[in-house]
Structure formats: C-alpha cells, structure tokens
Design a protein that fits this description.
The complex is a heterodimer of chains A (361) and B (460). By secondary structure, chain A is mostly helical. Chain A folds into two domains: 4-119 and 193-359, Orthogonal Bundle (MetI-like fold); 121-191. Chain A is 71% helix and 2% strand. Chain A has twelve helices and two strands, in the order αααβααβααααααα. Chain A has helices at residues 2-14, 16-33, 79-115, 124-151, 155-180, 194-206, 210-220, 225-252, 255-262, 267-304, 315-320, 330-360; strands at 121-123, 189-191. In chain A, helix 2 packs across helix 3 (79-115) and helix 3 (79-115) packs antiparallel against helix 6 (194-206). The two termini of chain A are 16 Å apart. Chain B is an all-alpha fold. Chain B has two domains: 76-193, no CATH class; 222-459, MetI-like fold. Chain B has helices spanning 2-29, 36-40, 52-65, 92-105, 108-124, 127-142, 146-159, 165-179, 199-208, 222-256, 261-275, 279-290, 314-352, 355-362, 367-405, 410-420, 423-451, 453-459; strands at 75-79, 189-193. A two-stranded antiparallel ribbon of chain B has the order 1-2. The chains are: A mainly alpha (361), B mainly alpha (460).
Chain lengths: 361, 460
C-alpha cells in the first residue's frame, strides 16, 4: 500500500502528463459528485422544443430563458448538462462494475495461481457430494425464490425457502459424503485442478468477442441498469483474473514467499499477508485500463441503444442524435471529446503506474 | 503435425458445444417468445382485419411450425404447485394467469381444470353473450381475492341461461378450486421427463447435420441469411486487416531506424491519443467530416450502392465497392493501428539488441538490409499469433462500423436480430464467430510451426 503511495508521489513530481491526467480525473469526479447542486440552466432530460439544434456559443438566446452554452440537440436538450450528467452516469455504472469484477478476478486468479493444479487436496467423496448438493441449492435457492418473486409472495415464504435450501443441501451433502466414504474409489484424496478449471472457464468466455457476447446477452435479459451491470461484471472479470494468476505464479517462486511457505504459514495467511500487497499494483493498473474500456463500452451500447433504456442520460445517446441531422457537428465533437479525454486520462494514469512498477522490479 | 491439429480440434469441440448450448438455452428461458407482443395488441392493424381469435390461432400455428411449443429440455423440474402441462399453455398471458391461479389456490389440478373450462366457456360464447359477461370475465382474469372469483362466476351464471354443459362445469370447477386448501406444496419439486421431443434435441441434431434453423423474422434458413451477410463483413475485415498490418509494419520500421528519433517522438504519442478515441466516435466523426455535404463530400454516405451492379464489368464493380468501403476501412485501420504498431515496435526492438544484428551491422550492411532481412524475419514470429488472435476481435469493430455506415453485413444482422429477438439468427452468429476464432487459432498454430522449425519438431 505504502509503495503505491510512493509511486504516485514520485510520478507526480516527475511526469507532468501524469499530473495533468490525475488533476483532470479528480476535477471530473468532483463535478460529477456535486452535479445536483450546480447551477445549471437545464436538466439533462428537459426538452426545449423552441430551440432545437442550437449551435454552441450562439448569442441569439431568448431573453427570458437561460442560455444553452454548448447548444442543443434535436429535441432541444441542453448539451452541457447532458455531457455532465452523462459522465456521471458512465462513472456510476463503470466504477462499481469494475470494482466487483476486479474483486472476483483477483480472488479467482490469485487462488488459482497459488493452488495450481496439484496443491489443493480434496476428498473425492466431498467433491462428488458437493456436485449433487448443487441440485437442491439450485431448486430452493434460485428457482423457487424467482417463482415466489414473480407471484408476489410474503416474506415468510422467502425465509422458508431459504431455510429449506440450506437444510436440504447440507443434508444431501453430509448424507452422500458418509455414503460415498464407503466406496473405495471415492474414499481418496485427489488434487483439485483449480488452475485448469479457471483457464477453461476463461477460454470458454473469451471464445466470443466481448461486445458480441454482451449484445447477445442483452437480447436475453430485460433492458435494466442492474441487468446490464451484471452482464458487464460477468464479462470483465477475466482480464483481472488472468493478470492476478500470472502475477501469483511469479510471486510464488520468489525467495521471500518460499521462506514464508517453509515457515509453515497457512495458505490463507500466505495469500493475504504475503501475496496480496504485491498483487495490488498490477491490479490497480488493470482496474484503470478496464475502467477506460468500460466507459467506451457503456457509451457504445447506449449509442447502439441496446441494453439500456432510452431515458438513460448518456454520452452515447447524445452522439447518436447526429444521425437525424448530420450538420450538427457539436453533437459529436463535444461529447466525443469529453469521452476521449477521459479515456486518455485514465490510460495515461495507468501507463505511468505500469511503467514505474516495471522499473522497480 | 496432423496429430497436433487433430488434438487441437478435438479439444475445441467441448468449448464450442458449451457456449452455443448456453446461449441457446438462455435465449429460451426468457419469457416473451418472438411475436408474442404482436399478439397482445388489441386493435387490429391497418392491413389485418383479424379478430383476437384468429390472431390467437395463427400465433399457435406459428409456434407449432417453428417447434416452439415443445418443452425446452429433456426433462424439467418445476414446483409441485404448478400444473404439469404449464409449458403447453399459450399465449404467455394465459400461462401467467394459470400460474397465478395455481399459486393462489395451491392446487394445480383444480386450477388447470378451471382454466380449461373457462377457455371452453369463452369459445362457446356468442358475440352478444360475450358483451354481457365481459365485465365478469375481466374480473376473473384480474381478481386478487377468492371472494371476487366467486362473485364473478356467480355473475356469469346469473347473466346466462344455464343450458350449456360447459357453464355448469365452470361453476363446479371453481367451487372445487375454492375448496382446495392452500399449503406448502410449492416446496416439493416435480420432475417431468419429455424424451427427445424437445427444442434442445431438435436444435442440436439440426446443428450436427449442418442446419442452423430458420429465422423467426422471415422464415428463411439462418444459413442463407448469414451467407448473404458474411461476404461483406469478410472482405471488409480482411482488407482492413491487411492494410493495418502493412501500415503498422512500416511505421515500426520507421521508428526502429537509427535516424528514427523524430518519428518515435511524434508517432508514439499520437498513436496513444488515437487509441483513446472510441471506435464509434471516430467513425461518426469521419462520416460527418468527409461524407457530408455540409463540410466535405469525398465519399458516398451510406450503404453499398447495389442498384446498378448488374451491367458492370468487374473493374467497375470493384471501384464502386471500394468507393463505398473506403471510409469504413479507414476507420477500422485507424482504430486498430495503435495496438498493432505498438506490438510490432516492441517485437522489433526486442530483436534489435541481439548479437547477430550487431554482427550484420559490423559486416557493413546497409540499415535497410539489416532491418528488412535480419530483424524482421525474427520479429514477425510473435506477431503471427497476435494477428490470428486479432482477426476475431475485429468482428466487434465490424459490428459498430457496419451500424454506422449501414453496410449489410454480419454485424448489422446481429444488431437487427438482437433488437427483434430473432434467436435462431443470434445463436447462428455466435456459432459462426466461435468457429471463426477456432479456425484462426488453428491457422496461427500452423503458421507458427511452419515459420519456426523448433516448434515443428517439438509438436510431433
């Protein structure tokens, strides 16, 4: 943690581009947070049908109305407030999505790298029992709550199914384990192929390009923000997982880690106290690179009008407005510039952090 | 070598099967089959004078011909509180109603019987009778309390003379429904076995025989629809890929030269800048600037300009194609240039420090010859895998480009299919993209083995 802080301070003093990028990001974050209290003339979804396609910095404004500083689109929506609120929406979606995806990727990748294919030994009986235990868990834990929800059931029913899910799953797993232990084949310990499983999972997911996968899944789920966020998390964790796995494989061979292992620490302590501090730097880089990708993807999706509702204020929606009037250049130039500069700032930030991490090694 | 290829193909099949099946099953789990919203429209459109009953009939016919009335998988596990026959009830509105009934009264058999008698009653009603009991029917469909149901059925019985058998049956079954106790039957699962008369089996066996199904939108085979679209995308991707690779290579060579300091200090930052512009913004920007009468009309705006393609020689056709494809290709090249150039540059600089390069320079070879003959050949090795990985990733770019420039290719087909929920086409595109990726990986392995004798001997 301290080393990251050190890196940031060094970069701040050495690289002007890094300073600029960081300042811009902080400024944008401050504006986005304080947006509801800023004195803007118009709301983002407010229609001003008398002033459509106003060019920016036009001085011929109506006297009794606030001026549209950056012009308006085809329905008279103010470009300035749409940009600011659009940036706010983009960050409100991307930050939590990327945080959750990074967490999932870090956990899976680090444990796969630590345990490898033959370090985690599990009893075959337990594994087989767990596989069977998935059945009642899926029925009582997923199917029934969804059914209850669609029928508007009372809370007591939800609690009942939750208890049933735990009870039946535990019963089945414990009962089957006792039963399976009697069989000679199943009563053995076998290495659990954690690494292989993770790699297979990533391979399946990345066999389809990410945008195509999201488009396809967006046709299946209802177009709500929550569903879209879940989709994005499901498609974005793989990058961090891959990186964390590779870093973990490297760290595992370092002398200090071998020393810690030979001192007989538990795997958990090894992971959290010894490996995690070294993983944080690369994960931070992956986080900000991924954030830039997410910002682009979110605006692309809202530009294509897929997976989001049309009243979501977004930079992509504003840019899509140019299709009805190709002379309105400000609908592309201004939101596009804001989007590109934000992405550029994020990429500059991660580029410098990555470079100084590599130099330190 | 053949052994290696065979093993690679064999390993890829489970991945392909898994992802295609997952997309297929997921797409079917979503409520709202294709065309169900069309059915829900109450008023007839301008062209159709049909009433609700005939629309209902044609919808059922549509479901039957497309096989959508079959159960989804070999078996299904549902709650015991739901009737077994639920998956056979269409349209979705009726299914939801039956589900509500059986949930509310906790007795699936009585609910199913009441539902059937209600439907028979409705079909037996004449137009004037329907007018009379409309209000009560509406009450039955939307009731929340048991008392409302009782009141509504009593109302129907009072309004109509009880001569018809179906009416008395209706009342009787409603009485049974009300009498049944509500309990915790929903906690019990009920398993049904459907055999091979299910949608998944049909789809998979069709896929193994090379059929991707038929499009729900126009009833044509998905293979035909895809075949029409794939040509445009394929040539667009291939041409822009070739351009981008050549350009990136030349730029990398310019930068790696000893006198290339100026190139390095200008090109690298501008490529970094280019990399942060999203593809759709870039495409729209170029479209607005270069194909717009308000600014500069260098290129035609939209589409492919088919209308007079018949009486032209191939040269004219090609020039027309190029005219329309130039701007999309420029976009794709520009969008992929930063990444490619960076990779090439890194590969070349990694080689530039090697001993044999110093030897070549010491021999007094010209800079040109050192770079082209000595550096490039070794530097290109890692790039081969990169290119093969890159081609499928370009598909994502093609989706955006084809939408912006209205090119009738696979990307636009995907967007259209997603917007209309034409699932057979979507699944077909997923299969094609996955196969494409698989083949390009295989190709890269082969090329790599051809280029590097060490790998060839290692693999066999």
């Amino acid at each position: 943690m301290r080393s990251l802080w050190q890196i940031a301070r060094d970069l701040w003093q050495m690289a002007p581009a890094f300073r600029l990028a960081l300042l811009y990001l902080v400024l944008l974050a401050a504006v986005a947070l304080a947006l509801p209290w800023l004195p803007l003339g118009y709301g983002p979804n407010e229609l001003d049908l008398e002033q459509t396609y106003q060019a920016p910095f036009g001085w011929a404004a109506e006297p009794d109305k606030p001026r549209h500083w950056l012009g308006t689109d085809g329905l008279g929506r103010d470009v300035l407030s749409n940009i600011l609120y659009g940036a706010r929406t983009a960050f409100a979606i991307s930050l939590p999505v990327m945080a959750i995806a990074s967490l999932i990727g870090l956990t899976l990748g680090a444990s796969a790298g630590l345990y490898g294919n033959r370090r985690l030994h599990l009893s075959r009986a337990v594994l087989a029992a767990l596989v069977f235990g998935l059945l009642p868990l899926a029925y009582y834990g997923i199917y029934l709550p969804m059914l209850l929800f669609s029928q508007g059931a009372a809370y007591s029913d939800f609690i009942l199914t939750g208890m049933a899910a735990l009870f039946f799953t535990l019963l089945l797993v414990l009962g089957l384990r006792a039963l399976f232990k009697q069989l000679p084949f199943l009563n053995q310990k076998t290495p659990f192929p954690a690494d292989e499983l993770l790699l297979r999972l990533i391979e399946v997911q990345t066999s389809i390009p990410r945008l195509v996968l999201i488009l396809v899944l967006a046709a299946i789920v209802p177009p709500t923000l929550l569903a879209l966020s879940v989709l994005l998390v499901l498609t974005f964790w793989t990058g961090t997982a891959r990186l964390a796995r590779a870093e973990m494989l490297r760290i595992r061979e370092l002398p200090f880690f071998e020393a810690a292992t030979s001192l007989g620490f538990t795997q958990r302590r090894l992971l959290i106290r010894h490996a995690l501090p070294h993983l944080l730097g690369p994960v931070l880089v992956a986080f900000s690179f991924g954030l830039a990708g997410l910002l682009m993807l979110e605006s692309t999706l809202s530009f294509l009008n897929i997976g989001v509702s049309t009243d979501l204020v977004s930079l992509g929606r504003m840019i899509a407005g140019i299709r009805t009037n190709t002379a309105a250049w400000w609908l592309v130039a201004i939101p596009g510039a804001v989007l590109s500069v934000t992405v550029l700032a994020l990429q500059t930030f991660s580029y410098y952090v990555l470079r100084s991490l590599q130099n330190k090694k | 070598m053949a052994n290696f290829v065979f093993r690679r193909l064999l390993l890829a099949i489970p991945t392909l099967w898994f992802i295609a099946s997952a997309i297929f099953l997921l797409s079917k789990l979503m409520p709202g089959a294709f065309g169900s919203e069309h059915l829900a429209q109450q008023e007839a459109g301008y062209y159709s004078r049909s009433d609700a009953a005939s629309r209902d009939h044609s919808y059922r016919l549509f479901l039957k011909t497309t096989g959508q009335d079959l159960p989804l998988f070999y078996f299904s596990i549902t709650s015991a509180a739901m009737p077994d026959t639920l998956h056979r009830v269409f349209p979705e509105r009726d299914r939801a109603f039956l589900q509500k009934l059986s949930w509310q009264y906790g007795n699936p058999d009585a609910a199913a019987r009441f539902f059937r008698s209600l439907k028979t009653l409705e079909t037996d009603l004449s137009e004037t009778e329907r007018q009379q009991v409309q209000e009560h029917l509406y009450m039955i469909y939307s009731h929340r309390e048991a008392a409302d149901l009782q009141q509504a059925t009593a109302g129907i019985a009072a309004k109509l003379p009880a001569t018809n058998i179906s009416r008395s049956k209706n009342l009787e079954s409603s009485a049974r429904l009300l009498a049944s106790p509500s309990g915790y039957t929903y906690l019990l699962p009920s398993v049904q076995w459907h055999g091979d008369q299910n949608q998944y089996y049909r789809w998979l066996s069709g896929l193994l025989q090379g059929s991707l199904g038929t499009s729900l939108r126009d009833g044509r085979p998905v293979a035909t629809v895809l075949g029409e679209a794939i040509g445009n995308t394929w040539w667009l991707l291939l041409a822009s890929m070739a351009f981008a690779t050549m350009l990136a290579m030349e730029l990398a060579i310019l930068m790696v030269r000893r006198s290339g300091r100026m190139w390095r200090s200008t090109l690298l930052p501008s490529l970094f800048l280019l990399d942060s512009i999203p593809l759709f913004v870039l495409a729209i920007l170029l479209l607005v600037l270069l194909a717009n009468p308000a600014f500069l009309q260098l290129f035609p705006v939209y589409g492919m300009g088919y209308y007079n393609a018949f009486d032209q020689s191939w040269l004219e056709q090609l020039s027309q194609w190029l005219q329309f494809m130039a701007l999309p290709m420029i976009c794709l090249v520009l969008a992929n240039l930063p990444y490619l150039t960076n990779q090439f540059y890194q590969a070349v600089t990694a080689v530039a420090g090697q001993d044999y390069i110093r030897t070549a320079r010491a021999k007094g070879l010209s800079e040109h010859r050192v770079i082209r003959r000595h550096m490039l050949r070794n530097a290109l090795l890692p790039v081969i895998t990169l290119l093969a990985d890159f081609l499928p990733a370009l598909v994502a770019g093609a989706v955006i480009i084809e939408t912006v420039f209205a090119i009738p290719g696979v990307g636009r087909l995907l967007i259209d299919a997603v917007l209309t929920r034409d699932y057979p086409v979507i699944v077909g595109i997923v299969v094609i993209v996955a196969v494409f990726r698989l083949l390009s990986h295989l190709l890269s392995d082969l090329l790599y083995a051809l280029a590097d004798p060490r790998i060839r001997s290692h693999a066999s």
